[in-house]
Write a structure and sequence with these properties.
Blueprint (H helix, E strand, L loop, with lengths): L6 H9 L10 H5 L3 H6 L17 H5 L28 E5 L3 H12 L3 E6 L8 H4 L8 H14 L3 E4 L5 H7 L3 E4 L3 E3 L12 E3 H5 L8 E5 L3 H11 L6 H9 L5 H9 L4 E5 L11 H13 L3 E3 L3 E6 L2 E6 L2 E6 L2 E4 L3 E3 L2 H6 L5 E4 L9 H13 L2
Parallel strand pairs: 1-2, 1-4, 2-3, 4-15, 6-13, 7-8, 7-13, 8-9
Antiparallel strand pairs: 5-14, 10-11, 11-12
């Protein structure tokens, strides 16, 4: 489908004679009404494809039915009809990540009175971090789409408010949906509390400084993407590359180096024999390719023994080896945050646990789960 998901861009391509025909595949799975909305000028209502491949291509490669992260009804339109609820209820959703936002939108669309409570000052949860690495910016558009839907459906959104059992019980909702997400797992590696050790989430949030030599502990999706984020720091952007090429200011070899080699030297250490095992089949190879192109050293079967002021000592091929580092980034997984669910169990009429608070998974799973819970009310 050539990744055209913006009808305005498609129109410009046609008007400028760059293309004779625009074909859209994934964008029409995300929003089958995209052409009608574009024709009617309702551009802000379009559910934009984010090219995550989690529900479409990944599912196809696994022999499963096509779905969509952006559109949880995709392929199941007959199963989930957007009909008004028999009895409108007061619904409180705790957590403004993708699961909670989708649950709130779906519940409100069926006539329930919904309040969404989020302890941070912005919605989006982990999507805000996932959209930071280069090439993943489109993930952030999903947050904007869900925010627009929350407003259109009249959901009351309370930001900067940390929910506890007393707050929820005082509000006396008929239904409580807990989507409190997950937090990085604590590390038991000796030295992991050192001054030069930081968490991947803090790096993506721009809350910490990182030195020149970087070692990322953990080669899952988060580790690979934070490593790519580090490796791209200091590379030239597309307009600069175009300017230098047009003016023949540098050789092609130099331009290629400036575009792919930044100011950091990055190494990923993974204990498993394969990197990115939690990344979808149709995107994993592209991420590994990007890491290789950017000069990231990828070391597998490496068990981290301890972190020292000099770097990370690993057990590799039955021998200890030091990987020198100015900064060590921990990307060793996440664990659910579900204490509020436990505190409310047995105290409200209907209580649900969704998203990473139930079990850390992909955005596709979290959004689908939030949608299904809301549709069952």
């Amino acid at each position: 489908d050539s990744r055209y998901n913006d009808p305005l861009l498609a129109e410009r391509m046609l008007r400028h004679g760059i293309a004779d025909l625009i074909a859209m595949g994934r964008p029409l799975i995300a929003d089958p009404q995209l052409p009608n909305k574009a024709r009617q000028g309702r551009l802000e209502e379009i559910q934009i494809c984010i090219a995550c491949n989690q529900g479409c291509f990944d599912s196809i490669f696994l022999g499963r039915a096509v779905g969509c992260t952006v559109n949880p009804r995709a392929g199941r339109e007959g199963q989930y009809r957007l009909a008004p609820a028999d009895r409108p209820k007061r619904v409180m959703v705790i957590g403004g990540g993708p699961a909670g936002m989708q649950a709130a939108v779906a519940a409100a669309s069926r006539g329930h009175r919904v309040t969404l409570v989020e302890q941070q000052d912005r919605l989006g949860g982990q999507l805000n971090l996932a959209s930071v690495p280069p090439g993943r910016e489109e993930l952030g558009t999903l947050v904007g789409c869900l925010e627009a839907q929350l407003g259109a459906e009249g959901v009351e959104v309370q930001l900067g408010l940390e929910a506890n059992a007393d707050l929820v019980l005082r509000a006396a909702p008929d239904v409580v949906i807990v989507g409190t997400g997950a937090v990085p797992c604590p590390s038991d590696i000796p030295g992991s509390n050192g001054e030069r050790v930081v968490r991947a989430w803090d790096v993506l949030a721009g809350e910490v400084d990182v030195g020149e030599r970087v070692v990322v502990l953990g080669g899952g999706a988060t580790g690979c993407l934070v490593a790519l984020h580090m490796a791209r720091m200091g590379t030239i952007d597309a307009p600069t590359l175009k300017f230098l090429m047009e003016n023949r200011a540098e050789t092609w070899e130099t331009l290629e180096r400036l575009a792919t080699r930044g100011t950091k030297r990055v190494t990923i250490l993974e204990v498993l024999p394969k990197l990115g095992t939690d990344i979808g089949l149709t995107t994993r190879w592209t991420i590994i390719q990007e890491l290789r192109r950017c000069g990231v050293e990828m070391v597998k079967n490496a068990e981290a023994l301890r972190i020292t002021p000099q770097g990370v000592v690993t057990l590799l091929e039955d021998q200890e080896r030091l990987f020198q580092a100015d900064t060590v980034i921990l990307a060793t997984g996440v664990s659910p945050v579900n204490e509020l669910y436990d505190a409310l169990e047995g105290q409200v009429d209907q209580l649900f646990l969704i998203g990473d608070a139930r079990e850390p998974r992909k955005a596709f799973d979290a959004i689908r789960e939030g949608f299904e819970v809301a549709m069952a009310l």
